[in-house]
Design brief:
It is a single chain. The chain is of the alpha/beta class. The protein has two domains: about 100 residues, 2-Layer Sandwich (Enolase-like, domain 1), CATH 3.30.390.10; about 230 residues, Enolase-like C-terminal domain (TIM Barrel), CATH 3.20.20. Helix content is about 35%, strand content about 20%. It has a seven-stranded parallel beta sheet, with helices on one face. A three-stranded antiparallel beta sheet has the order 1-4-5. A three-stranded antiparallel beta sheet has the order 6-15-14. The chain is globular. The mean pLDDT is about 95.
Amino acid sequence: MLRATYIHYPLIFIRPAGTSRGVLEQKPCWFVRLTSEAGTTGIGEVSFIPGLSVEKEEEMEIRLDHICQLISRGEMDPMQPLPSLPGVQFALETAVHDLEAGGERILFRSPFTEGKRGITTNGLIWMGAKPFMISQIREKMHLGFRVLKLKVGALNFSEELDVVRWIRSEFREAELEIRLDANGAWKPLEAPEKMEHFARYSIHSIEQPVASGQWEEMAGLCRDGAIPVALDEELIGVSDPGEMKALLHKINPAYTVLKPGLLGGFSTTSQWIELAETSGTGWWITSALESTIGLNAIAQWTGRKGVTMPQGLGTGALYTNNFSSPLQMRGEQLWFRSGSEWDLDAIKP
C-alpha cells in the first residue's frame, strides 16, 4: 500500500517576472510524495500558475489532502484521470513514474538521461523596458541561442515593435528565429493589424494572440493572419477527446504549444500530440515555470520523443530556492549530467 503526502513550497523569483497577466514575485507550488511499503519515495510537482491553471489556489490544499488520504487508504489509483485538477494529475503521474523507477528521479530513460544528447531550447525574453529586454537578448545571443521567444502584449505596442525592429537590425532571419507570445492579451479586432506590423520582421509564430475560448476569432486569425498562430492557453482545461479533436479541427492552428504540467500530465499531452500529428499541426513542449523537479520530468519525457525542433524548456534558474539537479544549460541546449546529485533536503519528510 502506498502512503501519499504533500508539502507546500512557494517558489521565490530572483527578480519579478513580467507577463501580460501581470508581474509574478513568487509562484505557488506543492509537491506530492508517494512512498511504498519498502520505503521508496517518488516525488511529483503540482504545476500551477495563478490566473492560468484550472485549479483554484485557495482550494488546492483541501483537494490535495483529500486525494492523499484516499490514496493512502487504497481507495484511489494515483494514475486516475483528474480532469478538474490537471496540475495535480501531472504531479501524481510524475511521482508514480519516479517511484516505479526507484525514486532516483530517472523517470524516462533515453540518450538524454545518459548524457549523450541535449535538447535544443528557445531563449525566453521577459517583458520590461526596452534596455532590459535588449540586455536579455544580447545575453542569449552571446550564449549561442538561435531561437528567441519574446513576451508581448503588456507594454506599449510601439515599444514592443521597436524591440523586434532592433533585433532584426542586428540579426538576420537566417541567424535568429523569433517567436512571439501574446498570452491572449490582444482584442480580436486589433490582433490582425498588430500581427501585420510584426510580420514585417520575419516572425516564426505567435502564441495565443487573443484570449482562449474565442474559437471563431482564433480560427480567422489562423486562416488569414500574417503570422502562423500557435495555441497555448486555448488547450488548458480541455481533456475530453471529442472536444480536443473539435478544437483543433475548428481552429486549425499552425502549431500547438504543449505544457504537460498544465494540461494534465503526459497521458493528456500524448493525446494532443497524436491529434496534432493526425491533423498536420506542428507542436513543441514547454515547461510552465516549474522547479527543477517538474522540469526534470518534462525534459526526460521530451528527450524520449527525439525532438529536433527547439523546445520551450529552461533550467528553472528563476528562483532563489530551487533545487540543485543534474539539469544544465550548455549554450542553447538543455543537458542531463548523469551522476550529478540532487539536493532535496528542503522538502524531505
